[in-house]
Amino acid sequence: xxxxxxxxxxxxxxxxxxxxxxxxxxxxxxxxxxxxxxxxxxxxxxxxxxxxxxxxxxxxxxxxxxxxxxxxxxxxxxxxxxxxxxxxxxxxxxxxxxxxxxxxxxx
Amino acid sequence: xxxxxxxxxxxxxxxxxxxxxxxxxxxxxxxxxxxxxxxxxxxxxxxxxxxxxxxxxxxxxxxxxxxxxxxxxxxxxxxxxxxxxxxxxxxxxxxxxxxxxxxxxxx
DNA sequence: TTAACAGTTCACAAATTTATGAACTATTAA
DNA sequence: TTAATAGTTCATAAATTTGTGAACTGTTAA
Lengths: 107, 107
Fold this sequence. Notes:
three-stranded antiparallel sheet; 65% helix; homodimer; alpha+beta
């Protein structure tokens, strides 16, 4: 049988996008590097929770981090992440538009 | 507070990519339309399981389906899906390459 | 009508993911 | 040294996702 482990690895990377908080982090991190506390300021919530989400994203290769003194800075590992995320957002928008136009047709 | 429901919707679309079987389905469906049974032939597994995965993908707007007689045909809802998926695959490959080059440096 | 075929739905157990708060580590300042 | 700050780790309970097989629906053929 064909080896499917590449699909598991690929899905693991995609899982790093599969949570509202993590999508928000990508949104906030678009293009720039930001410290943990700045991200926390923008997203809100518990810092333990944010730390866990960030660590998932770093482990899956979506983000990279570096430590400077007491602070840890995060950024997207590549512009590809932002592009992929943007495409998925468009798929969502397309779907919402289609639903809207179906509704308009019915009235 | 800022409204975050767009992040939830966006993450829901991304969740449709977050499973090995669903990544395989996208891979198999690249560019072409295919019937349920053809997809089942290629991916293997239980048909009830495949049917559930396909229904998740249709509901999230990743796939569209049409019925013709006894057969149901599926295709990607847009080339954007394939492009996003490909970008995430590249993020994975980049990560694997980086790990590889770190290993080479150590020996 | 009955049987066969294609696919979906359902119930449920198992696995995975998530949020929370407490405890912990590391760095800087007093 | 002690205290404060920044962030991580850990345990655990709750929520969500997943795989399985049986039952079901709809379509075609005999």
